Amino acid sequence: MSALVPPGSTDTVFSVDTLLKYMGDDDKARAVVTKIVRDACAPAMTPLLQAGQAIDEQRLADAGRIFHSLRGSVGNLGAKRLVTASLALELALAEQRVADIGPLLAAVETEYRLVLEQAGDWLARHAGGAAPA
User: Fold this and answer.
1) Domain 17-126 is of which CATH architecture?
2) In sequence order, which ranges of the chain are alpha helices (DSSP H)?
3) HSE on the CB side for 117, CA within 13 Å?
4) Which one, 28, 39, 49, 118, has the greatest CB density within 10 A?
5) What is the Cα–Cα distance from 2 to 103, expressed in whole angstroms?
């Protein structure tokens, strides 16, 4: 568990149950949600690599935009822990708190890897194929 997520937290790593419920929880809804999950996970680690490069190049605003976009796309998958970690990192980037960026980036990476893993497991169980690693 990341330093941003307190022990015993009920925040989710990944859950599309609510999304499925709102969409009718039928075969059509599962097909749509499967596409949403696949599309959200398709970039795999690319956004983190791009943001890391932006940080290395002192383009903190660019890195912040990458994390904002990632948070928006993956947040729809019930990734509350990733959203929390990303928001903290985005704030540190915006405020140029350089000393905080490394640990917060590590927390986002940990949470994002967990989302990708759980999304891949969900796809394997419900759609017959895993998300990209």
Assistant:
1) Up-down Bundle (1.20)
2) 17-22, 27-41, 46-56, 60-75, 80-94, 98-126
3) 8
4) 118
5) 10
- pTM of the full predicted structure? 0.85
pLDDT reading at 128 higher than 90:
no
Q: Cα 81 from chain centroid?
A: 8
| Domain boundaries along the sequence of the chain | 17-126
Distance CA 21, CA 99 (A): 42
**Integer angstrom CA distances of residue 56 from 70, 88, 126:** 19, 18, 39
Q: Check residue 130 and report its DSSP letter.
A: P
Query: Cα separation of 24 and 43, whole Å?
Result: 28
Position 11 scores a pLDDT of: 82
Gap between the Cα atoms of 86 and 48, Å rounded = 11
Residue pLDDT, tens place only, 12-53: 899 999 999 999 999 999 999 999 999 999 999 999 999 999
Backbone CA torsion sign across 15, 74, 132, 12: negative
